[in-house]
Amino acid sequence: MNAIVVAVILMLGLSLARFNVVASLCIGAIVGGLLGGLDLQQTLDAFSGGLGGGATVALSYALLGAFAVCIEVSGLPRVLSGRTVNALQAESIAQSRLKWALLASIGTAAVFSQNLIPVHIAFIPILIPPLLGAFNRLKLDRRLVACVLTFGLVTPYMLLPVGFGAIYLNDILLANVASNGVVDVQGNMLIKAMAIPAVGMLLGLFVAITFSYRKPRDYRETEEAAVNTKEIPAAKVWIALLAIVVAFVVQLWSGAIILAALAGYFVFVAGGVVRWVEANNVFTNGMKMMAQIGFVMIAAAGFAAVMKATGHVDTLVASSAEWIGGSKSLAAAAMLMVGLLVTMGIGSSFSTIPIIATVFVPLALQLGFSPLATLALVGTAGALGDAGSPASDSTLGPSMGLSIDGQHDHMWDSVVPTFLHYNLPLLVFGWLAAMML
């Protein structure tokens, strides 16, 4: 049996059984490496060698965590959450209206975090924890909040070539499709190619909102983040806004999240929001907050390195190609399923495309898929699994913010709901795009 299939199933099974995700990735990598023909030392060497691939991402998240704690210290989140809770208490505001306004605001913040203000998941620990008290009063199902956040974290980058979308669509998808033989692809094709799969994401969000998690869900009351915001100096709030703008500008100018987070951090220190004597503790607390997701991303990079070292990615794709024969409909379904499996294991759609494009693109050309259909197939296959992988930051980020009080389980309240509502529609609509374009 294919080593990648076994490794991914084992990793997912352990994670669903509430085993630690990092440990699940390590065990899955070892078993997959041994089944893939590597001995134990080769497996460990491949795993260790791959860890560095996640180090940059982990450091970026750690610095973003420090930046997030600085924003928390400034009182800006308390101002926002305080106004929200006060609105909830106002008799003139219907709870249903506030519920939809909250979900719309959270979804908008998630979308902006990918394209307009590309801070990715760094906004979640800033925005979500102070709102948990309001969620509890509204009896808002946190699984729905996780679905809204994940929709905003995934759909924009797979559809809009701005911010992280520019990296995914232009630098990764378009570049890999072109370099593997499709010479007549252009940037203006990307939105058209990915529009139908994006409709699948939108449909999944609609189902989650209107059917799956519509009913109220009870949570125990927790201490709400300071509703009274009078004690928060306005100067601190303005410095926080300045720091956010500086981080945004630096990120656009340099393209480096690490540099942007550092720039924002120094604005907080220079502005006196974070005192010099407390700066080290604030920085350390921010890194601790993001430590779990950082270690998961590092372990996921090691897992991916072992899977590549076995050579079974090519075997998996080749066996799928042999099984489908000359059927375009079967080919599209098989490529999407392989993309789902690979991304579920690696946890990163950005890392999946370079792995699968080398085989998928020649196969698509051989079967007569158009350039648009090829872009849709490879782009959707890469994004598949991102919303449902235990190792994906698109599920880890929402869990990080929603589980602060211990009432939200990563696997059952984030991973399973997002897998059902996004990965399954993406399979269907990705296939439709390949057939229609």
The main pleated sheet reads as: none
Class by alpha and beta content: mainly alpha
Radius of gyration: 22 Å
Instruction: Note the run of SSEs as H and E.
Output: HHHHHHHHHHHHHHHHHHHH
Give the overall average pLDDT.
78
The helix count comes to 20
Low-confidence runs: 224-229
Keywords:
20 helices; mainly alpha; 437 residues; single chain
Task: Describe this protein's structure.
It contains 20 helices and no strands. With 437 residues, the protein is an all-alpha fold. The protein has one domain (53-222, 291-436). Helix 1 crosses helix 16, helix 15 runs parallel beside helix 17 (349-367) and helix 16 (328-346) runs antiparallel to helix 20 (410-436). It is globular and about 70 Å long. The two termini are 34 Å apart.
List the helices and strands and how they pair.
Layout: H1 3-16, H2 21-35, H3 40-74, H4 76-89, H5 95-112, H6 124-127, H7 132-138, H8 142-159, H9 164-179, H10 190-212, H11 234-254, H12 257-270, H13 279-289, H14 291-310, H15 312-324, H16 328-346, H17 349-367, H18 371-383, H19 393-402, H20 410-436
Q: What's the short story on this structure?
A:
With about 425 residues, this protein is mostly helical.
